[in-house]
Automatic annotation (TrEMBL), chain A:
This is RsbT antagonist protein RsbS. Transmembrane segments: none annotated. It comes from Larkinella arboricola. Coiled coil: none annotated. Residues 1-113 form the STAS domain.
UniProtKB/TrEMBL annotation, chain B:
This is RsbT co-antagonist protein RsbR. PROSITE patterns: STAS. The keyword Zinc does not apply. Keywords: Phosphoprotein. Residues 158-269 form the STAS domain. Signal peptide: none annotated. It holds the Pfam family STAS.
Amino acid sequence: MDKIPILRMGPFLLVTIQVDLYDRLALNLESDLVQKVHQTGARGVLIDISAVSIVDSFMGRILGNIASMTRVLDAETVVVGMQPAVAITLIELGLSLKGVHTALDVERGMALLQEKLDWDTDVADDDGDNIE
Amino acid sequence: MANSLTQLIQSNKARLLDLWIQKQLTSDSLRDDLMSNDELRAQSEELVNALARSLTEENIDQVDSIQFDEVFEILSGISVYRAQQGFSPRETGLYIFSLKDAILDLIRQEITDPARLFEESVRINRLLDSLGVVTFETFIKGREEVILRQTEEISDISTPVIQIWEGILALPIIGTLDSSRTQVVMENLLQRIVDTGSNIAILDISGVPAVDSLVAQHLIKTVSATRLMGAECIISGIRPEIAQTVVHLGIDLSNIITKASLASALKHAFAMSRMAVKRIDVDKKAL
């Protein structure tokens, strides 16, 4: 059975979806990802969907769910590389993915996660002398 | 019946053409500003030749027979050409009906027996009338093509997406926003965001005459779609009247960044991408 690999990059998890996501696969991804966040104590999850060309309301909901679930585990979710057609479809379906951060590509997504992490640590220690 | 009608036309082709051209040149509907007389003659000659070729004693009463396909094709070509050149329907109609006059003139000169003359005139009338119908059908089709092309061009040029700075796109919207236009605007904008890797888009609506709840919904959709792509969208150019309508209609734009002018939107975009525009002090260095 297909499985979507979840890669660890420092304090973040990187998921690249290269195949069309069918319902079962999406559900597995959801549970695997939450498990992994719990195991590794990751502070951010980056999901790259630049290769996904077809999306339905179920998939939109799964993305929203993943974001909410990881937030409970103190990790932010960023969805990157959404295709224009996919964005239009989601909007027409009435899913604006509230609570999910978005970025244009993996690089900017990583920068966004790093920024959020820095901000968090800034708040945590009052010195604010963390490494750039 | 030694000389049948078709033989008459075929053997007097050159004379017929001369008659017809003469009629056209003297007619009020001659438009030498749209088409040169040589071109007119070439087109007419082609049509007369094709007609003479496909006309037989059998098919003259059956205009939908396939032997006339060539004639219809040439006629359609002429008709579409005329539509595109801007000939009026009247001029195009008179063009084909003057051929009828020419043929009738010809047979009046050649046939002396009144009964036969009448008989042949009726047949010619029937044939030329159906040619006239074809001319009009294709003329209108040609006009419609022109209109369709213009519509496409308008919708293409009416939604330009301009890159005003590295990472900042601007999209001035001029004219009414309806569903199909919003779709085009949205698709263009999102595609350009991907192409240029921009993360800020400014939607300028100073050219939108009125904003109702439907237009506002379209704007909100566009903003949400750009957000999904990972870019931020600023709406600028909101006129006081539009601000009033939006509030009166109870449309919630609170989670969208709105600015009064494109300039202030650009300023905000610079601030978001941590850039600043600075005036260079020239006075000391220049002197």
